[in-house]
Amino acid sequence: MAEEQLNTNDEQQEELSTEPVSLDLFLKDNVDTQLDKKAIKIKGIKAPFVIQTISSKRFKEIQNDATTTSFNRKTGMKSQSVNQSKLTDLMMIEGIIQPDLNNAQLQESWGRVADPIGLLQDMVVRSGDYANLGTEITNLSGISTNDASEVDQVKK
């Protein structure tokens, strides 16, 4: 549903009107804010993983958590950099809703107590499946790889 709405190809853009519309269409009661979900099959695991959209507000929080600020005493300039690996890990933890990677029983069974990303890496043994999960979460959330790179460049 959101994928169709977020699709911004030229053909769809031509169909959209630039004419003014009622403000009522933007009121909270008239806007669908439900997060999209999708099931992903991972080889070797009997049940599907379920992923969901990461909201724009939550993505900003995750991005801030993965960003470090440093101060150059020589130049007096502040700079920020995004740790892409940490950003990806945080997005995976946030985007995967089944299984619950923070579940103590699940973590204990894999020997990964308080380590949800280590748990995920142990569970999903094929690197391609792991990368696919990240790509699916990114796509479902409407974040393109180029957008993430551009954000990183702007932050630098």
UniProtKB/TrEMBL annotation:
It comes from the Bacteria. It comes from Apilactobacillus ozensis DSM 23829 = JCM 17196. Gene3D superfamilies: 3.30.2220.30. InterPro entries: XkdN-like (IPR014986), XkdN-like_sf (IPR038559). The lineage of its organism: Bacteria, Bacillati, Bacillota, Bacilli, Lactobacillales. This is XkdN-like protein. Pfam families: Phage_TAC_5 (PF08890).
